Amino acid sequence: MTTAAGWRVPAAIEAVRDRVVADGVVDRLPGFDLVADPTFAGDRGTSEAAHVVGVVGDRRFAAGLDHGLERCCATVMSALQDEVVDRSGRPWPLIGTESGDGGGWVLDVDVDRDGIAVWRRGSEVLCPVGLLVPSVRARGWAVA
After folding, report:
1. How far apart are CA 55 and CA 84, in angstroms?
2. Buried b (16+ CB within 10 A) or exposed e, 96-130
3. In this prediction, what percent of the chain has a pLDDT beyond 90?
4. DSSP for 61-124, written as a single string
5. Do residues 20 and 119 touch, judged by C-beta distance below 8 A?
6. pTM of the model
7. For residues 13 and 65, is the Cβ–Cβ distance under 8 A?
8. Are residues 12 and 33 in contact, defined by beta-carbon separation less than 8 angstroms?
9. Rounded to 5 degrees, what angle do the CA atoms 44, 57, 95 make?
10. Is the bond into 93 cis (omega within 30 degrees of 0)?
11. Is the pLDDT confidence value at 43 over 60?
């Protein structure tokens, strides 16, 4: 089975999972996975992509793969970002200098005008989802 954009669903799940893991959020959320669950759909439709869910502990959420790979990356990362905040009571990702001096700012995840899932600070795009750690390090910053 494929998504509307022609991705095979298992390959699309792997691609999204790899990008999410690369950004380090799963270090804060043990047990994260992205799976196809034919019992999870509600009113989301019958396509295999509509049954892809993110899992964190007992929580399951629609991953949005039926809306495309990039939208899925943004949806999953946004849900995980919220989960980290709920569990820790602190914003994530919090970006600051490597030395720890200076302020910090929180990034938001979004889909840019080109349809790419990205991390942004206000209107400024920092990097695509999946490249947060190297992008931050390249600027001499750190992710807290």
Report:
1. 13
2. beeeeeeeeeebebbbeeeebbbbeeeeeebbbbb
3. 57
4. EE--GGG-HHHHHHHHHHHHHHHHHHHHSS-SSEEEETTS-S--EE-EEEE-TTS-EEEEETTE
5. no
6. 0.89
7. yes
8. no
9. 90
10. yes
11. no
Contact at 8 Å (CB) between 32 and 20? Answer: yes
Around 79, how many Cα atoms within 13 Å sit in the side-chain half-sphere?
20
pLDDT above 70: residue 100: no
Amino acid at 73: C
Average pLDDT over every residue of 8-30: 93
Q: By C-alpha distance, which of 74, 116, 117, 126 is closest to 95?
A: 126
Per the structure block, which two tokens stand in for 17? 């999972």
Distance of alpha carbon 98 from alpha carbon 6, whole angstroms = 41
Order of strands across the sheet that contains 124-128: 108-111, 117-121, 124-128
Contacts of 96 (CB under 8 A, 6+ apart): 102, 103, 104, 105, 141, 142, 144
